[in-house]
Amino acid sequence: MKNILNDFIYLIIMKDLKVWLDGELIQYNDAKVPILTHSLQYGSGIFEGIRAYETDKGTAIFRLDDHINRFFRSAKIYYMDLKYTKDEIKNAIIEVVKKNNLSNCYIRPFAFYNDDTIGLSPFKKKISVFIAAVPFKEYLTELNGVKCKISSWKRINSNILPVSAKASGNYLNSIIAHLEARYSGYDEAILLTDNGSVAEGPGENIFIVKGNNVISPGLSSDILEGITRDTVMNISRDLGYNVIERDIHKEELYVSNEVFFSGTAAEITPIVNIDGIRIGDGNPGKITVAIKNRYMDIVHGKEKSHNNWLTYI
Length: 313
Ligand SMILES: Cc1ncc(COP(=O)(O)O)c(C=O)c1O
Hints:
single chain; alpha+beta; D-amino Acid Aminotransferase, Chain A, domain 1; D-amino Acid Aminotransferase, Chain A, domain 2; eight-stranded antiparallel sheet; 8 helices; 27% strand; globular; binds pyridoxal-5'-phosphate
């Protein structure tokens, strides 16, 4: 029942939603792309996932410049010339949030080949950008700790695909790992690198806590360079913990005091069970909760020391 109701509310919201497509703000239902678009057939889009939150001073977008920089890096890696400046995309994102009167929301800029000829090569095909924003609250965070499965699928590595780009096609790796976990009765997957060390979740970075150390796999572990991951590292240092980036063996996950995910959508999500093994005492850990509380204060503008991460609109 909850799902049907949610779908219904979502449909009503989408009907009135305005999205930005190549410089124009139009109704969601009028934003059409050819079904033969290269990006649908071959997964050649690049995108970002950004959040805005309600604060005392109105809606604020979290770490907008960092997301825009990553959007442009993803485009560059995939030979996509976006024909917009960073400022133009930034202003467009702000406009979309404003014009839809959104507070807590998820923002999706997406660049794609807007062309309807069949053929693998997108060389010199027209590129379009759309920006949509939808109301958004909880993702994995609504669960008080998630149960994870180490995926039988390995994380893609940068000899095969550029792991630091947020490109649609890269996500088939995430999707298959996630589905394997869900169909096996878990909430989420954890992917290992080709060498068997811990990489990340399908759409989240991962941390372990051992004593006073907050540890995350480094960039050489084929992870996406998460903006929340960087935020967590900053918060951890602020709170007096040691931040370490190093390879993590799979079995270290099982015996860590605490394990958690970080991500724009997942925020800070405690992991309480992996492969049927309880992490710590099976409840969200103390340090995880302290980091999460500080994170939520920062995104909601209650922690003035990191106000520079907020773009008020
Ligand atoms: C594969 C992957 N790893 C990690 C993350 C977390 O990145 P961020 O904190 O920038 O959202 C994401 C989400 O974008 C992701 O898709």
